[in-house]
Amino acid sequence: MLKTKKLVMIPGPTPVVRSIQDQMGRETVAFGDPDFVADFAEVIGDLKTLWKCGGEAFVVAGSGTLAMEMAVANVAKRGENVLVCSNGFFGDRFIDLCERKGLNVDVLKARWGESITPENVAAQLARKDYQLVTVTHVETSTGVAAPVAEIAGAVHETSSALLIVDGVAATGGVEETIDPMGIDILLTCSQKAFGVAPGLAMLWAGQRAMEKRATLGRIPESYVDFDKWLPIMHNPAKYWGTPPINLIWALKESLRIMKEEGLEERYARHARQGALVDAAMEAIGFTVAARKPYRAPTLSVYLYPEGSGIDDVQFRTVLADEGVQSAGCLGDFQGKGFRMGHMGNIDRHTLVSAVGAVERACFKCGYRIEFGKALGVLQEGLARE
């Protein structure tokens, strides 16, 4: 039997297009090779320019979680107060990370499917003096997009705290700017909206964050220390840790694709197509877990229709057999639905194939639908773009 090609539609890693794959397949050179040094410098420059950062940009080998640790390690010291704004599982990850750093942690938690608001943040900041606020832009466990620009405004209007934004599932697919929005640190990784294989941690630090780093002196951490990496980011010919050469080439190609599409259009495309996939799923009875207006354009959590009798494990297994790899839900939504990414360099053919596979999986799991109903909504929307 011919094996069905499996589309990777989880919230990350996302599909890697051929031109990016080709960069990862190049013959590896020395990290001091002049051509590679120039390429690495171009990547750093593009990151600062495209995300409007007058401070610094860092690209190091590691995961998004490492970028989270890098962010906190360089702008906070033991005994300081941090406000963690959590919309779900990955927002909560900051709690353990900050407690290990010896910070005093308070947590604002939203109901699953909803978001912390600027009003929530401002009210808490009025009660206590905080040195740091963290927020996850797109929460992977709930499909919620926090109103980051408005939260940044609330933080800076009511306190002197620094704002860390976890952009792991947002950056490159949802608008973010460092200086205009007032984000002090933005962190992300390569395998989400950038459409590169896993392995790169990326971080932007604004001027206020760099000024805070300068007051801390020698920090306990080594690998994630800004001061260790800054000379390399200014001149990639220097050495601290070996750069992941082929992944940096892949990131360079990803940035070329972004510049060619244009960031404004890229953000608009994610918003349009994310809303279309949500509408297609709602047309066959699924519920989008994230409440409006907090639905993320990069990924969604789809809850099974009430009374459908769909078994979670069976559905996701059948869906994989039909050609789409999805992800199980976490926390409050575990067993109640599945998570699907629709971010990065995914094209229309992929979206149509994914929704078609969902229709077939519903039928095979005993949930009777009108074939083509979800696809019709998606196709009409795509045709009108």
What does this structure look like?
The radius of gyration is 21 Å and the shape is globular. It has helices spanning 18-24, 34-50, 64-73, 89-100, 118-127, 148-158, 207-216, 226-234, 245-261, 263-283, 312-321, 348-364, 373-384; strands spanning 7-8, 56-61, 81-86, 104-109, 132-136, 138-139, 144-145, 162-166, 185-189, 200-205, 287-288, 299-303, 324-325, 327-328, 337-341. The protein is α/β, with parallel strands linked by helices and 385 residues long. It has two domains: 7-14 and 262-384, Aspartate Aminotransferase, domain 1 (Alpha-Beta Complex), CATH 3.90.1150.10; 18-261, 3-Layer(aba) Sandwich (Aspartate Aminotransferase, domain 2), CATH 3.40.640.10. Helices cover 42% and strands 16% of the residues. Helix 1 (18-24) packs antiparallel against helix 9 (245-261), helix 2 packs across helix 9 (245-261) and helix 11 (312-321) packs across helix 12. The protein is built from 13 helices and 15 strands. It has a seven-stranded mixed β-sheet with strand order 2-10-9-8-5-3-4, with helices on both faces. The model has no long low-confidence stretch (mean pLDDT 97).
The helix-strand sequence is EHHEHEHEHEEEHEEEHHHHEEHEEEHH
The CATH top-level class label of the largest domain: Alpha Beta
Can you identify the CATH superfamily of the largest domain?
Answer: Type I PLP-dependent aspartate aminotransferase-like (Major domain)
* CATH architectural group of the largest domain: 3-Layer(aba) Sandwich
- What is the CATH third-level topology name of the largest domain? Aspartate Aminotransferase, domain 2
Distance between the termini: 37 Å
Tally of DSSP β-strands? 15
Largest sheet: 7 strands, mixed
| Number of separate structural domains | 2
